[in-house]
Amino acid sequence: MDTFLSAIALVSDPGTLIAIVVSCLFGFTIGALPGLTATMAVALLVPITFFLSPVAAIASIVAAAATAIFAGDIPGALLRMPGTPASAAYTDDAYELTRQGKAGLVLGLNAACSAFGGVVGTVVLLLFAPLLANVALQFSTFEFFWLACLGLTCSVFVSSDDPLKGTISLLVGLLIATVGMDYTTGYPRFTFENANLYEGISFIPALIGMFALAEIIRTLLGTNEGTTTALPEQRNVVGAVLRACWTNWRHMVRGSSLGTAIGALPGAGADIASWISTALARRFSRLPVSWGKGNVEGIIAGSSANNAALSGAWIPALVFAIPGDTITAIAIGVLYLKGMNPGPTVFINNADLVYAVFICFFLANLFLIPIGLVAMRFSRMVLAIHRQYLMPPLLVLAVIGSFAIDNAVFGIAVMLVLGILAYIMEECRFPIAPMVLGIVLGRLLEQHMMQSLISTQGSFVGLFERPIAGILGAITLLVWFSPMLRWLWWKWRARDHFDSQLGGR
Amino acid sequence: MRIGDGILGLFFVLFAAGVLWHVRGFPSLPGQFYGPGFFPGIILVCLLACGVMLIARGVRESSHGGFTIIAPAWRAAPRGAISALFLFFSVLAFYFLGEDLGFLPLMFGALLVLYLWLGRGLAWSFGLAGGLTIAIDILFREVLRVPIPTGIFPPLW
């Protein structure tokens, strides 16, 4: 109880509350601009978090991400241009409702369901993260090695419909993470006698480059035109929203639970949660013919899922130091910088800070409702800004942010190189999420692997000897070889079928 | 832009093989089971295998552009490409000249040039570039205490 009270004291600090409000506004602005993602909002916020207290820093990330995901629904509903990929799943129905003069209902549903999903995800985080942490305390380098492998593998299979390109993206990320002095011998690898590279690639400039710079390049090269759409008036919006939520409570609950579960999978984020949840809502829809013509079920399920996934992603991030999505990948970096080393011990060493983070989750998600109501009135103003005109200041922010992490211009070079690399890879249809997770987790993976191999005297079989490690290792190998096993199964079935046909003649 | 999987696979095979060659030169230390090249070696072997699979896919899809390169869409709109070049040189200017000249003039210059190029008027671009430069400088130097290089220009505050 003392821990909880001290957590409340930490959150009620005026600095933290101001950070939450300002971050909400920032997240709203970025999220409401078509194409700019919640991850980009968080990446741009990182340099500012260096100068905040640990709780305010994490609170600002949580608040910006939650608001950006909600705000992404606004241009989707008004312009049929989803602000974030997470909103894309139900944009068609939202836009159809807007055309029917129900924009108020759509935006109200987005705000209410986002808040509900976020709160459900937070409750699950609050209840299960400490329990999981108790189990995780039994983990050694062996288990963490397999868990990191499993997380990285999941990111490949979940973040893209092309596992081969996802794997290549992951391997490129892991290779980037090997730059710098070797963990066991101190030998400088791929440093080309550049002292700036001895400590490895600083991943904050890398993330800013891969998300912010790549997006700026894409916008400057593209031909997106900013337009405005009038927000139609609708009376008694709140009543209509509450009625729709009441009628479709199953979709809200299912979307929130599914979003939390998917969010907790490393590599799967709000985007995937939203798409799967919307697909499931369609599968169980009471009005399947109205889909694409203004059905609220998909909007409710998708909006609930994407904000729930944001909270769910923090479960592996806090308990195992494995990012659930790209936002938590960045947040883990901030946690390390703030001395809150994520992992099971964070619940012992920094219990008050962890509970403060949980309270911030509640606050940020509850703020969505008033912010949503205000946002509905001001959304036209934000959408009226031509996206291209926002790019120059975003570029300057990205440059200074990359400089600020180490106060060295080398960070700017890292941002530029990795920004261009990310742009080219995305143009060639390579998903970026596995590469990001590879950069963030690469060093950790290598450290756990080398520590485990040293303790097993170099034996790979030893990696399976501990019970939990053995189970995790078996699951990982099963996931790795499942495509091959599936192929062999189909071949066997086809041959069996062919033989039975021959036998029948 | 679309690059066929076959070409991408070929690139990754050559890249992985080249870096593997480099990794072979990493020393193996006495008393160590695995040297500094062990982990990157595993990654590169996997990358090489993935490259071969991409080539195989390219061969399978050779009639559907497995080995072709389609020019990027922005080639039809060179204005966008020039904007991206401005961006590239702006970032390079921060990297090479940032510490000598200072970030302040570079910020102002980058914002001014980009706004002018994006089609805003001279007065509008000057005003916005100046205002944003001052706002960003106050935010980072004064509020957040980032030691932004001042270069030859004295700090404004």
Description:
The complex is a heterodimer of chains A (505) and B (157). In chain A, 74% of the residues lie in helices and 1% in strands. Chain A is mostly helical and 505 residues long. In chain A, a hairpin with a 6-residue loop joins strand 1 (180-181) and strand 2. In chain A, helix 8 crosses helix 9 (163-177). The N and C termini of chain A lie far apart (78 Å). By secondary structure, chain B is mainly alpha-helical. Chain B contains five helices and two strands, in the order E-H-H-E-H-H-H. In chain B, helix 3 runs antiparallel to helix 4 and helix 4 runs antiparallel to helix 5 (122-143). Chain B is flat, with a radius of gyration of 24 Å. At the A-B interface, helix 9, helix 10, helix 19, helix 20 and helix 21 of A face strand 1, helix 1, helix 2, helix 3 and helix 4 of B.
Annotation, overall tally of beta strands of chain B: 2
Note poorly predicted spans of chain B. none
Q: Kindly report how far apart the N and C termini of chain A lie.
A: 78 Å
**Helical content of chain B, roughly?**
55-70%
Portion in strands of chain B = under 5%
Rough outline of chain A: globular
Q: Extract low-pLDDT stretches of chain A.
A: 223-231
Largest sheet of chain B: 2 strands, antiparallel
How many beta-strand segments of chain A?
Answer: 2
Approximate strand percentage of chain A = under 5%
**Biggest interface found:** A-B, 54 and 63 residues
- The ordered H/E elements of chain A are HHHHHHHHHEEHHHHHHHHHHHHH
Intertermini distance of chain B? 46 Å
Quickly count the helices of chain B. Answer: 5
Question: Which key phrases capture this entry?
Answer:
heterodimer, A: 505 residues, mainly alpha, two-stranded antiparallel ribbon, 74% helix, B: 157 residues, two-stranded antiparallel sheet, 5 helices, 66% helix
Q: In summary, what is this structure?
A:
Chain A has 505 residues and is an all-alpha fold. In chain A, 74% of the residues lie in helices and 1% in strands. Chain A is globular and about 70 Å long.
